[in-house]
Amino acid sequence: MTPHPHKPRKIQMGPTQETEDEMVLDEGNRVLRPRKRARQDGPAEEVEPPAKKPKSRKPPLARPHARTRRRTRPDENTRRLSLLMDMPLDILFVILCFLPPKTLFCLMNVSNAFRELLTASSAATIWIRLRKSYNAPEPASFIDSSGEYAWARALFDESGTECAECGSRRKTLKYLDFVECKWICKGCIVRGAVTQGSFKRKFRGQDKIVLELLPLFVAVQLEVGGNKEIYRNADITKVISCLSACGDEASVTTYKLERLKELERAKARRLAFLEWRPRYHYYLQKDHYEEERFLCEQRMRDIKERILDLGYPKEDLVNLEECQSFDIPVRLTNASWESIKAEVLTIVRQTRKGRLMYCSTGVFGVRRQFIEALYVEFKGTFTPIDWREFPSVETVFLYAEINNLLLAPEQQTITSNDFALIIRDDWGTFLKNVREWRAYRKERFISEWGRHLKDDTMNTLARDIGLLHSSEERYVWKMPWQLPSMDFGNLAVAQLRCFYCNRICTTQNAAGKHQDNVRECGLRNAWCWGFKFSPSKAALQVIGLSGLNPTTASADDMDAKGDFFKCLACDEEFVGTWRECITCHDIHHTPEFQLLEDHNAIREDKRKSWACSLCNAHLVAQEMRATVIKHLESAHGTIEPKVPKDYLYAGAY
């Protein structure tokens, strides 16, 4: 036989002597396989392999399918739902009567057992109760218990209505036939349909009175274009058959009357359906909203439970509900919790920071006492002139390392040794942080102060309150570092206002104790410069009334004089020191203060804000001015003490 010229020849080659293989028969697969054998001395025996059976191709029809569809394992919820079928039917029907339509139709996709149960005639009570609970229209009179499911599906199934003719569930336009009470897709309606004009051509010899006995489908878009009223072929054939079956005129008349009554009832059902459908959609939206709210509340409860499991108290969860990113209708899983855990803990820690400033009981109170004791020990190694510029203990709470320990969960045990590792054992690092804090604040203060000196703001304010009487008069302001032998952070005319609480600080040094004075302030970062330079007309006026130069007067100079001023603009009588006048003055009004000459500054100053400069007797708690002067006389023998050499103001404003 001559091989095909375009087809390669298959050459079968047996085993060679060089490979030393032998062919063995695989009994399991009934094929020959080569097998290695040990080389023997002498010439190898030639073994003829058995003849190979030619492969025969099976016809295409005999081939099995390449791959069958892989069946998926039912999930845990499906297995749990399948246990419902073991319950008695009366109890099961009672349970199913309370389920919404969407759930009932979803149950039919769980298993064949549910589908057979819900589509059976015995389950008509479920669909009747469902229809009545939503005040849905009644079905046609010819529909019995076996058709209640079909009518309920026509009313309530929103997932993908089946066409009763072809069974299609594609998202094509479907129409509800109110005579037969079933959904029909556009394809089944248009296929073989006729218009009033084409009726005579297709059904020759039939009277047009047949069309009066047919349901009309209005505004169906035809392929040829335009919207026309059409009649279905199946309906026409059915009516013609019924008319032909009538024996006499009386039967025809009776059939026509019954048919017309049925069409009227179908029109009534259509009107009732169109009126009921919007109400049903409103019910669906309401149920959907309630379901979403339930899921949101459940998600928030799960988040709070996980936070409580981490050891945080309920007081730290008050701000979680204000976060909109958690208020989503999705159940909380382990994966979703890991994705939002950092954000949740950030909100919890911010809440704990706010509680830390005013909570002095419980775990916070104990931890605060540890820091306060260590901080007092730290400040005791410096003189009062130095530590009065240190930040308040509330500001120390905001240092990152200390704050992490303070805000640790309640269940985590924190001792004084943990804080001592940061403050006492690492004294040099902590002191470096304090000095960097002071240097950073002074740099920001110079920037704020210098900006107002360049645009002549201070001279304008002085003219407004009468310190300067003409445009030619002016104060020669110097930059803070140009002032001789004075800490510019102690300048009397330089006030700072907090961005967060809008409170005013009389000096830059007083701003370091701002958290100690205003617990409700929103400043939650020790390294954050939360102040702006706020030139005060009140400060300029009281400094001028005291007889000092506003350009060089320091806060110590004003404290040493101890003058009292009376406000003439207040409805109620107000008398206070220069610091009290600045902090209480409304910046939107022109200040009107009067110097009181007959007030004794030492006797009448009741502020517990003074400390001895020669020792640390008032390190923990400051005293009134008169008490500190007596201490200087008894402990140090100072007869005429000076500010700030012998004693100083160490208050927080």
Q: Which structural traits does this protein have?
A:
653 residues; mainly alpha; 25 helices; 9% strand; elongated
Shape: elongated
Main sheet characteristics: 3 strands, antiparallel
Specify the number of helices. 25
Number of strands: 15
Mean pLDDT: 77
Q: In what order do the strands lie side by side in the largest sheet?
A: 5-7-6
SS strand fraction:
5-15%
Radius of gyration: 48 Å
Class computed from helices, strands and strand pairing: mainly alpha
Distance between the termini: 116 Å
Uncertain spans:
1-47, 58-72
- How much helical structure, as a percent, in the residues? 40-55%
Biased composition (Basic residues): 1-10, 52-72
Domain F-box: 81-130
Region (Disordered): 1-76
InterPro entries: F-box-like_dom_sf (IPR036047), F-box_dom (IPR001810)
